[in-house]
Structure formats: C-alpha cells, structure tokens
Task: structure prediction
Amino acid sequence: RTWMVRHPKEIVVIWLSRAGSVDAKGTDQFPGASLEDKNTFWSTYAQIFDGMLLDNTATPPQSTPINDIAGKVLTFASDYEELTNSSVYALDAALYLKN
Result:
C-alpha cells in the first residue's frame, strides 16, 4: 500500500493463487484452507488496499483507458468464488488467465 501511495500513476496487477493454477478450486487450490480462512484472507487483503482495488464492474480493465485506472490494484483470483465471495474487486483468473 505504501508503495502505491508513493506511485499514484502506477497500476499493480496481483494474481492470488497457489502454485500458479487457474483452474483448481476449493482445497485443490488452497489445501487446508477453510472457507472461513479464505474469507478472512480476502477481508484483510481488501482492507489493506481499501480505495485502491479496481471495481471491475464500474471500470472494466478490458475497456477502460489506462489513465483512468492509474493508482489501482487489479486483482486476479484463482478459486475466485470461494476466495473473494465473487467480489467486484477481483477477476476470476480461470476466465482471464491462461497458464
């Protein structure tokens, strides 16, 4: 977050995954992590980047000019539904990333 504040024209892309798998879900994606663990992780992540996470419904990254999303964090999430509870502040890695 501090780096983002110091570099307000940058866009940071973060992919939340275990071992780079876009398709694994549930315990295949995050072994040993309960749904509660995932909710806690996402809540903490969202708090850290509060105000910086790109709302993908209001400003879709595929069609929004780069200048309009400067200073934002674009998040891709594997196990999107469980990890983020289908948050508008993340994109489903399985739909957008090919690995």
About this structure: The chain has a mean pLDDT of 96. The helical segments are 2-6, 35-48, 80-84, 93-96. The first helix runs from residue 2 to 6.
